[in-house]
Amino acid sequence: MDEAFSALDPLIRREMQEQLVELQRKLGRTIVFITHDLNEAMFLGDRIAVMRDGRIVQNGTPEEILADPANDYVAQFVQDVDRARVLTAASVMEPPHATMPLSAGVRGALRTMRAQQTRALFAVENRRLVGVVTDRAVIRAVKAGETDLRRVVDASPRALPTVGPDDLLTDIVETAVEATVPLAVVDENRRLLGVIPRVTLLAALGNVPATTREIPIIQSPIDMVAEFTPLVDTVAGGAPTPGEPATEGAR
After folding, report:
1. Terminal CA-CA length for the chain
2. Summary count for the chain: helices (H), strands (E)
3. Is residue 119 within 8 Å of 216, Cβ to Cβ?
4. In whole angstroms, what is the distance from residue 187 CA to residue 165 CA?
5. Domain ranges of the chain
6. Predicted confidence (pLDDT) per residue in 155-202, tens digit
7. Sign of CA dihedral 229, 234, 236, 239
8. Distance CA 212, CA 234 (A)
9. What pTM did the predictor assign?
10. How far apart are CA 251 and CA 240, in angstroms?
11. Which residue ranges does the record assign to the CBS domain (predicted)?
């Protein structure tokens, strides 16, 4: 099909594009579609061949072409594409570093938080995402003598926003903005596939390369120091600062 929809007005053109996608899904036939509209190509194509001077300069999925253009020509060709309507959660997610099995217990979670310099962990059991554990909850549990990590896990949707691997970025931006932890990418069995920190999402939308270790809790560093330093000293058994009463370290 050569420029099949180029002469149509925008509304009818969109309807015809959607009908073509549905028809291809039902018939399962390969369709070669020629277009100069890259947004149209990204919407219709499972694979796209970018041509220049009669030669294919790159062939790949829409995500591959957007994320890794083969040369400057392709990069300039795709620079105005609406990336949020093409890229999926799976294409931008990072490995989930900040995880903790429930069997590790409260003190195991605290040690992992210190080692990874993070303020929250994703709790997993048999590779399935159970909930999120914050440093506030862990510190309170240690002070109360609690050892079972299950008692401090928060599994509420507000505390633990999840998305599917095939969700488009345009559909998860609002969730990411409201979240206090990175978005957890899970499959239909709630297995944790990856995470999307807010900075990674913004970098993907802005076409800026970014690799980051996720920092789950988003909170003012000044507030965190003021609120948590005495409690952390208590848990760690550290010496009190001048002018403060001595506290007994947890053993």
Report:
1. 73
2. 10, 8
3. yes
4. 7
5. 10-82, 91-205
6. 888 888 999 999 999 999 989 888 888 999 999 999 999 999 988 888
7. positive
8. 31
9. 0.69
10. 16
11. 93-149
